[in-house]
Design goal:
Catalytic activity: L-seryl-[protein] + ATP = O-phospho-L-seryl-[protein] + ADP + H(+); L-threonyl-[protein] + ATP = O-phospho-L-threonyl-[protein] + ADP + H(+)
Oligomer: single chain
Membrane topology: Single-pass membrane protein
Shape: elongated
Organism: Rhododendron griersonianum
Number of helices: 4
Helix content: 10-25%
Subcellular location: Membrane
Number of strands: 17
Protein name: non-specific serine/threonine protein kinase
Distance between the termini: 9 Å
C-alpha cells in the first residue's frame, strides 16, 4: 500500500497537469519524462529522438539518442557523434554533419566513415551520394586531378563518386580510405571532386530519413501515441498514451488494459502511478 504522502504527491502532480490542460497543453502523464528539449540554439528536438543522459531510451527509437554539448545537438551514430543541423518532422528527415572536421578551412578532411548500423530505422535520402576518399597516396595515376589543398609533400589525396572510381590499387598506395555521404550539388565530375566542392559538401552535411518501426509502432502513432522501446533488442515496443503505457494502441475511452506498472491510482480520466 502506497503511503499517504505518495498519494498526495500524485494528486499534486495531477492538479499541475490539469492546470496545464486549461492553458491548452496536452495532458500526458505517462510521457512527462519524454518531453521535447532544446540544446540552447532554438531547435526543438523531440520524439522519435530522445536526450542522452536526461531521458530514458524508451522515449524514442533505438539509435536516436541526441546529446547537448554546449548549444550543439549531437546525434549518436554507431561510435561517433554528428552535429544535427536541421530536423524536419513533417518530412521525417534531418541534416547531419561531422562534429569535428580535421581542418576548419574550406578544405576539411573527413575524419572517419559514416555507419548507420546503430539504428535500423535510419537511411540516406535519395539526394545523398556516397564518396570514396583516398588520403595521402604515395603513388597515383598522374592524369587524375587531386584535392590540391590536401597535398603533403609528394603525397596526394583524392575523392571520387562511388561508381566512378578509376581502376588503381588505391588501398596499397594510400594511407587511409574513407566512405562518406555528401549532398553533392556541384562539381560532381566523373573524374573526381575538387577541394572546394568536397570541403563544401562535407560542411553542408548529409540528409537522413527515418521510418516508423513496423512492429506495432505505426498503429500506436496513428492512434495519437508514441512508441517506446525498453532495454534489450528483442523487447516488444509499448505505446505511450495520455492515460498510460500500453502494448496496444491509445484509446480515448481508456478501455485498453494496461500492460505496464499495474499499481495505478485512477483520478478522473487519468492514471497516475504510485
Amino acid at each position: 500500500m502506497a503511503s499517504l504522502s505518495h498519494h498526495l504527491s500524485s494528486l499534486l502532480l495531477l492538479l499541475n497537469l490539469l492546470d496545464a490542460a486549461t492553458n491548452g497543453d496536452s495532458v500526458k502523464p505517462a510521457i512527462l519524462a519524454c518531453r521535447s528539449f532544446d540544446c540552447g540554439n532554438g531547435q526543438i528536438i523531440g520524439y522519435p529522438f530522445w536526450q542522452q543522459g536526461n531521458q530514458d531510451e524508451h522515449c524514442g527509437y533505438p539509435g536516436f539518442a541526441v546529446s547537448c554539448y554546449g548549444q550543439q545537438p549531437l546525434l549518436h551514430l554507431f561510435d561517433h557523434l554528428y552535429q544535427v543541423k536541421k530536423i524536419s518532422y513533417p518530412e521525417n528527415t534531418l541534416i547531419a554533419t561531422f562534429r569535428d572536421l580535421s581542418d576548419g578551412s574550406k578544405c576539411p578532411m573527413a575524419p572517419h566513415d559514416v555507419n548507420l548500423n546503430s539504428s535500423p530505422f535510419l537511411n540516406y535520402t535519395t539526394g545523398v551520394k556516397m564518396v570514396k576518399c583516398f588520403y595521402n597516396c604515395t603513388l597515383y595515376p598522374p592524369s587524375l586531378p587531386d584535392i590540391e589543398c590536401l597535398r603533403y609533400g609528394l603525397k596526394r589525396s583524392y575523392a571520387f563518386m562511388e561508381g566512378a572510381i578509376p581502376e588503381f590499387d588505391w588501398r596499397k598506395y594510400c594511407e587511409s580510405t574513407m566512405r562518406v555521404p555528401v549532398a553533392v550539388k556541384t562539381g560532381n565530375r566523373r573524374d573526381g571532386l575538387s577541394g572546394d566542392d568536397f570541403g563544401r559538401a562535407l560542411k553542408e552535411g548529409f540528409e537522413l530519413t527515418w521510418r516508423s518501426p513496423e512492429s506495432g509502432c505505426r498503429s500506436c502513432e496513428a492512434s495519437g501515441g508514441f512508441c517506446g522501446f525498453g532495454n534489450g533488442p528483442n523487447q516488444k515496443p509499448f505505446c505511450f498514451c495520455n492515460d498510460g503505457k500500453r502494448y496496444d494502441v491509445c484509446s480515448d475511452k481508456g478501455d485498453v488494459t494496461l500492460a505496464f506498472e499495474p499499481d495505478f491510482i485512477a483520478i478522473g480520466e487519468h492514471l497516475l502511478p504510485f
